[in-house]
Automatic annotation (TrEMBL):
Belongs to the glycosyl hydrolase 3 family. This is Glycoside hydrolase family 3 domain protein. SUPFAM superfamilies: (Trans)glycosidases. Residues 59-361 form the Glycoside hydrolase family 3 N-terminal domain. It comes from Conexibacter woesei (strain DSM 14684 / CCUG 47730 / CIP 108061 / JCM 11494 / NBRC 100937 / ID131577). It comes from the Bacteria. The keyword Lipid metabolism does not apply. Keywords: Glycosidase, Hydrolase, Signal. InterPro entries: GH, Glyco_hydro_3_N, Glyco_hydro_3_N_sf, NagZ_Beta-hexosaminidase. Pfam families: Glyco_hydro_3. GO terms for biological process: carbohydrate metabolic process; peptidoglycan turnover. Residues 1-22 form the signal peptide. The lineage of its organism: Bacteria, Bacillati, Actinomycetota, Thermoleophilia, Solirubrobacterales. GO terms for molecular function: hydrolase activity, hydrolyzing O-glycosyl compounds.
């Protein structure tokens, strides 16, 4: 079945490299923002999150940052030796940014990490509990304190974005439930405890990310390894799976990560490659006005697609930030494809700038 899904998806996104694709549906600002004054490679750079292989900053990554070609980086356990080492690494990244283009010097890089708690925790320390543990306690005050402790843990080493909380339902048989990545089986429970955790992150000065829209709480598979097909009626999806994300949008969560799942009630493409999901459902129906971010574009579930195709499909769907979490080469190829697409007219420069402006506005608010 998965092979059939992948074949169907490859056909669906094949148009992204065609001769005359449709213009990007990403919302376009009505007035020119700061991105319009940037060179094209820098505007595209504001849509890109890179990664690094070890515990020091590679020269090539430092050059990219100095050239304004990245909005930030994502960190993993492979990048963590000690707290002192990690603080030195993030300080170096921000120092390179301050040596970059004048228009970007005062906008700190987004330094991201997955610090959910439980099985998904890249850095020792808070949170002490998994999402499942916090949900079982059903104490919003405790969850908020856990979020605050996590923010202090992260900010102490220069991390300003947590790719958490997971707002997927934890339904029986789902991967999120079996791994304790979900706070509850009900939308109300997820909103109550996950929302409190996000509030705690905000209290501590770290940006939260609600993930994985429109919800993976019915999926049996690890989303990095296989595409989950969430085949439920649209009214049920909206009433349950999407409900915690609506609540997060009302709370003003700054980021939403779009899932790799397939939701036939909306589209046969993975959500993060679907304009129907990423723009029309998340922005127009749910009302989210922050920054959208893909899941990792290098996971094995979509390894059959080239970095170029994934970058183009992600931007056309309406994602503001593209996560390339494994290799610098893939991120470089994705960015180069976007530059070529703008120059050829396949993607409008205004659509690149609209997403870049949202990212730049968010970065401007960081300390």
């Amino acid at each position: 079945m998965i092979a059939t899904l992948l074949a169907a998806f490859a056909t669906a996104v094949g148009a992204v490299t065609g001769a005359a694709p449709a213009a990007s549906p990403t919302p376009v600002a009505t007035a020119a923002g700061p991105a319009a004054s940037l060179p094209l490679d820098q505007a595209v750079g504001q849509r890109m999150i890179g990664s690094l292989p070890g515990t020091t900053v590679p020269d090539a990554l430092a050059r990219q940052i100095r050239r304004g070609q990245l909005a930030g980086v994502i960190l993993f356990a492979r990048n963590v030796g000690s707290r002192a080492q990690l603080r030195a690494l993030t300080d170096r990244l921000q120092a390179e940014r301050r040596r970059g283009p004048r228009a970007l010097r005062d906008r700190p890089l987004l330094i991201m990490i997955d610090q959910e708690g439980g099985l998904v925790k890249r850095l020792p320390g808070a949170p002490a509990q998994s999402a499942g543990d916090l949900g079982a306690r059903n104490d919003p005050a405790l969850a908020r304190r856990a979020g605050l402790a996590t923010a202090r843990n992260l900010s102490g080493v220069g991390v300003n974005v947590n790719l958490a909380p997971v707002l997927d339902l934890g339904l029986p048989g789902s991967y999120q439930r079996s791994t304790e990545r979900s706070y509850a089986a009900t939308a109300a429970g997820v909103s109550r405890i996950g929302g409190a955790f996000a509030d705690g992150l905000r209290d501590g000065g770290v940006l939260a990310t609600a993930k994985h829209f429109p919800g993976l709480g019915r999926g049996p598979a690890n989303e990095d390894e296989r595409l989950n097909r969430i085949d439920v009626p649209l009214d049920l999806l909206r009433a349950t799976d999407e409900a915690p994300f609506r609540d997060a949008a009302r709370r003003g969560v700054p980021f939403v990560m779009v899932s790799t799942g397939i939701y036939p009630a909306l589209d046969e493409r993975p959500a993060m490659f679907s304009e129907r999901v990423t723009t029309r459902e998340l922005r127009d129906v749910v009302g989210f006005r922050g920054v959208t971010v893909t899941d990792d574009l290098e996971v094995s579930a979509i390894a059959h697609l080239t970095p170029e195709r994934k970058a183009l499909a992600s931007v056309r769907a309406g994602n503001d930030l593209l996560l390339f979490c494994q290799t610098a080469a893939a991120a470089d190829r994705g960015a180069a494809a976007l530059v070529r697409a703008v120059r050829s007219g396949a993607i409008e420069r205004a659509s690149i700038d609209a997403g870049a402006d949202r990212v730049l506005a968010l970065r401007a608010g960081l300390r």
